[in-house]
Design brief:
By secondary structure, the chain is an alpha/beta fold. It has a single domain, classed as 4-Layer Sandwich (Metallo-beta-lactamase, Chain A). It has nine helices and twelve strands. It has helices at residues 38-51, 66-69, 84-91, 95-98, 166-176, 195-212, 217-221, 224-227, 232-247; strands at 2-4, 9-12, 20-25, 28-32, 56-60, 80-83, 112-114, 117-120, 123-127, 136-140, 145-153, 183-188. The strands form two sheets. A seven-stranded mixed β-sheet has the order 1-2-3-4-5-6-7.
Length: 248
């Protein structure tokens, strides 16, 4: 499903799948994240080249997770940008990591990397950490659009993984509130105004309190910020990961 934020920015995703953002810029189109499936990535490339009739300037990977990077193979002949940590983590994927994932043909990491920040015209990329140590955001300054990657899940439970850091995640979200943007594109779910940052902050803080034992499951379940989110299995899995972190 293709949704238009405006005449230059399109969000492609459905039913909670990872969002792909297509943004028309003066020198060409940038694409943020490439999805889990090469077939979907190819359709996105066809949309840019055959419908928009624009050249692809470069791609960005917000973090290393396969649902944001496996489609890179379709854009192997294009410039792909990520943090150096994202590239490193993709290169470390082994057979054990990949065994239950769709075949990607081969892993295609970034061709250009940055440590903390990268700028190209009015496109600003910054590594924030939190959801994963390499999680990055993309700010389309002219369009006033923040592409938050998996730092934000809108209408769906967050994927809290073994290398998530809730303190860093909350710090990143707090810092994102300072940006002057009209729209936030989450890693999963519909784009929304900046209020989704506040919802995500409340969500993570409450999870922290649940793990700390200062609130109960009943209090969590009575909160619409939890009860109305999709993929409840992610909530249970995330709690397991947090408990395992604390047990180390």
């Amino acid at each position: 499903m293709i949704q238009k934020i405006n005449e230059r920015v399109f969000v492609i995703g459905s039913e909670g799948s990872a969002n792909v953002v297509v943004a028309v810029q003066p020198k060409g189109v940038i694409i943020v994240d490439t999805s889990l499936f090469s077939e979907k990535a190819q359709k996105i490339r066809d949309f840019v080249e055959n419908v928009l009739k624009r050249e692809i300037q470069f791609l960005v990977n917000t973090h290393y997770h396969p649902d944001h990077t496996f489609g890179n193979i379709v854009f192997e002949n294009k410039s792909i940008i990520s943090s150096s940590l994202t590239r490193e983590k993709i290169m470390l994927m082994d057979e054990h990591y990949l065994e239950n994932l769709p075949a990607s043909g081969k892993l295609v990491p970034a061709t250009a990397t940055f440590e903390d920040e990268y700028r190209e015209g009015q496109v600003f990329i910054k590594r924030m950490g939190g959801h994963t140590p390499d999680s990055s955001i993309v700010l389309l300054e002219q369009e006033r659009v923040l592409i938050a990657g998996d730092l934000v899940f809108n209408d769906f439970h967050a994927e809290i993984v073994s290398d998530s850091d809730l303190d860093a995640w909350l710090s990143a979200l707090e810092s994102l509130r300072k940006y002057r943007v009209d729209w936030v594109v989450p890693g999963h779910g519909n784009f929304a105004d900046k209020g989704c940052l506040d919802s995500m902050i409340r969500y993570l803080k409450k999870i922290q309190r649940l793990v700390d034992g200062t609130i109960t499951y009943a209090e969590i379940l009575s909160d619409e910020n939890f009860s109305k989110r999709g993929f409840p299995e992610l909530f249970s899995w995330g709690l397991e990961n947090l408990v395992a972190q604390r047990a180390k």
